[in-house]
Amino acid sequence: MSQTAQIIINGKTFELPVTVGSADEEAIDISKFRGQSGVITLDRGFKNTGSCESAITFLNGEKGILRYRGYPIEQLADKSTFLEVSYLLIYGELPTSTELESFAKEITSHTLVNEDIKKILDGFPSLAHPMGVLSSLVTSQTAYYPQSLLPNRPEEEINLSIIRLLAKMPTFAAWAYKKKIGHPVIYPNNSLDYCSNFLHMMFALPADSYEVDPVVANALDKLLILHADHEQNCSTSTVRIVGSSQASLWASIAAGINALWGPLHGGANQAVIEMLEGIKADGGDTKKWMAKAKAKDDPFRLMGFGHRVYKNFDPRARIIKKAADDVLNQLGVTDPVLDIAKGLEEEALRDDYFVERKLYPNVDFYSGIIYRALGIPTEMFTVMFALGRLPGWIAQWKEMREKGEPIGRPRQIYVGENERDYVDTAKR
Ligand code: SDX
Questions:
Q1: What stretch of H or E contains 7?
Q2: Which residue owns the Cα nearest ligand 1 atom 13?
């Protein structure tokens, strides 16, 4: 027997259906509540409100569970590859070897971008942040593929845009980096796998032969898997709401890139390293910085700590922390900020302020340390997050469009001036 919930307001009782998900999560469906009662609900930051029903990613913040299409993140990070996980998220099932081979081959054949992209790059000053360059380059593709702007395109055309996005994002990301450091761009090398091709475009020089270190490529592949999707986070919700207006996949992904950029979201991985370096430069006094993070009147926050949903360990942080140790050992790299990070984590996990608020390290706390060990510069960290999150954004956009979700348009409670008459300025 399906459950219901009751809301009693203005002396009237309203009965609302309760939706139960496949993991027994419950939601009060308020879709018809305003029509029945004239009353809306208010939930700043959507902390308690579901925007959709989705079959892509499940996470349980209290238990620290994360699954892509039912597969635990720990198993995917350990056994899968980023392209296989991308296929799983976008198409719903793990691919056969033939399907994966064809998927990888299609992506490889679309890695090249129009030469005019260099003219767009030249329009940016070298101090431009790579995230701004990346979102601009993604938006620019609407000019090269105007057909993709038309709503309700046939499945094969949408799939071509999906392949083009997955194929060209590494090229855009690497070219944004080359632009920043004033080096000539490096073209895709289609004899390399996805991550090796990206690393080659990032670090090769026209004159030199550059060999990708398999340790680095494997570590990057694992990091991209761990970032691939995370249900209705800020940037994914942005992709869905922009897509709900029937804006193209390119425009929706560009919006997601810009939402991810913020330091409270994907920009945190850059902010974590800048914070750790600041603490190191300040003499490494972690107790002083912990006190600042707890002080109400101090805007400083312990970046990489806390999460809207995880009120236990972020399972990705646990995997990345171990990977950080492994990669640094394999590469023979020591990084003093790793010791500062571990010290901060140990102190925070013993501190009442953090324990009471259930603030644990999140995905961004250790990822920057690995990116740094892989030779990726700090300003490119959030670009790496975007590269990883791309298949998740695509999968969520595709699900929203296939389900014919309505255009997203939240309500509000108006708190401004009530009606008043205009007064001629001359007499004011
Ligand atoms: C990502 O949503 C996702 O899934 C995101 C993500 C993904 O994969 O897409 O997981 C990726 O964005 C991870 C989060 C990266 N951001 C950071 O590391 C920035 C630092 N963390 C915070 O700013 C904060 O924890 C948020 C933004 C992540 C979550 O903020 P909430 O849920 O809105 O919580 P809040 O700001 O209301 O904080 C609750 C309390 C407050 O104290 P009180 O007012 O109750 O006294 O906890 C405190 C906050 O001041 N607090 C922190 C803190 N985070 C929260 N205090 C110090 N340091 C922190 N990092």
A1: strand 4-9
A2: 265
What element of type H or E holds 251? helix 249-260
**Ligand 1 lining (C-beta closer than 6 Å):** 45, 230, 233, 264-266, 268, 293, 301-309, 357, 359, 362-364
CA–centroid distance, 233 to ligand 1, in Å, is 12
User: Ligand 1 centroid to 141 CA: how many Å?
Assistant: 34
* DSSP code string of 25-45: -EEE--TTHHHHHS-----GG
- pLDDT tens digit sequence for 56-97: 999 999 999 999 999 999 999 999 999 999 999 999 999 999
pLDDT tens, position by position, 138-182: 999 999 999 888 888 889 999 999 999 999 999 999 999 999 999
Residue 203: band (very low, low, confident or very high) from pLDDT cuts 50, 70, 90 = very high
Q: Which CATH architecture has domain 61-410?
A: Orthogonal Bundle (1.10)
| Segments making up each domain of the chain, as ranges | 4-60, 61-410
- Residues carrying an active site annotation: 307, 364
**Amino acid found at 51:** S
pTM of the full structure? 0.96
Q: CA 296 to CA 259: how far, in whole Å? A: 26
Which class is 4-60 in CATH?
mainly beta
By alpha-carbon position, which residue is closest to atom 55 of ligand 1?
306
